[in-house]
Amino acid sequence: NAGVTQTPKFQVLKTGQSMTLQCAQDMNHNSMYWYRQDPGMGLRLIYYSASEGTTDKGEVPNGYNVSRLNKREFSLRLESAAPSQTSVYFCASSDGQAYQPQHFGDGTRLSIL
Amino acid sequence: DQQVKQNSPSLSVQEGRISILNCDYTNSMFDYFLWYKKYPAEGPTFLISISSIKDKNEDGRFTVFLNKSAKHLSLHIVPSQPGDSAVYFCAASEGGGYQKVTFGIGTKLQVIP
């Protein structure tokens, strides 16, 4: 009964390093999402994939890239990490139908020094 | 420009009493509204939702009220329990939310035993 699994749970990077955050869901959901949560800002959408083979920018896409590897997996890549990308990153999935909620993973806490 | 506003950052309620969490929105195209609950070091968990064709939805101790003319929704928890202590996020979307969902910044609820 895993739901949405994110790896790693914690990571510390140096400015300029690259990193890929992994996300996998086992609910056969069509849509997947990446959010970041910052103090006083709530959850902000970085990128989403409405269905396998498609990706679209969200509210704050700059500095990130995504790959929808298959129906289960959606990764988020930081090519050259910056301190402003220090945040908690959440992956979510939904079945892609209207009026259905998103289901979240437990997050990746990323610090960039 | 916050389209979903939770103006109370925190709320304290005695166990057994009612908790009322409020949310305002500005986008008149929103037609699907959700509440998520989040414990520390975990991802948000879907709690309850309502579509714009309704003005009330109830699930056990949780009831969401929607006032479309005022662009306001509220979450009522009755009776409140210590396990309800968490951060509650209000969220909203257009077109049933199968793509983008906009989140508020959250309200931290503390239920005092």
Can you lay out the helices and strands and say which pair or pack?
The complex is a heterodimer of chains A (113) and B (113).
Chain A lengths: L3 E4 L2 E4 L5 E7 L5 E8 L3 E8 L6 E2 L6 E5 L5 E5 L8 E8 L8 E2 L3 E5 L1
Parallel strand pairs in A: 2-11
Antiparallel strand pairs in A: 1-3, 3-8, 4-5, 4-9, 5-6, 7-8, 9-10, 9-11
Chain B lengths: L3 E2 L4 E5 L4 E7 L4 E9 L6 E7 L4 E4 L2 E6 L4 E6 L8 E9 L7 E2 L3 E6 L1
Parallel strand pairs in B: 2-11
Antiparallel strand pairs in B: 1-3, 3-8, 4-5, 4-9, 6-7, 7-8, 9-10, 9-11
Coarse shape of chain A:
globular
Tertiary shape of chain B: globular
SS element count, helices of chain B: 0
Helix content of chain A: under 10%
Q: What class do helices, strands and sheet pairing of chain A give?
A: mainly beta
Q: What does the model show?
A:
The complex is a heterodimer of chains A (113) and B (113). Chain A is 0% helix and 51% strand. Chain A is mostly beta strands and 113 residues long. In chain A, the strands form 2 sheets. In chain A, strands 2, 4, 5, 6, 9, 10 and 11 form a 7-stranded mixed β-sheet that branches. In chain A, strands 1-3-8-7 form a 4-stranded antiparallel β-sheet, with no helix packed on it. Chain A is globular. The termini of chain A are far apart. The mean pLDDT of chain A is 94. In chain B, the strands form 2 sheets. In chain B, strands 2, 4, 5, 9, 10 and 11 form a 6-stranded mixed β-sheet that branches. Chain B has a 5-stranded antiparallel β-sheet with strand order 1-3-8-7-6, with no helix packed on it. Chain B is globular and about 40 Å long. Chain B starts with a strand and ends with a strand.
Describe this protein with a few key phrases.
heterodimer, A: 113 residues, mainly beta, 51% strand, B: 113 residues, 6-stranded mixed β-sheet, 5-stranded antiparallel β-sheet, 56% strand
The gist of it:
The complex is a heterodimer of chains A (113) and B (113). With 113 residues, chain A is mainly β.
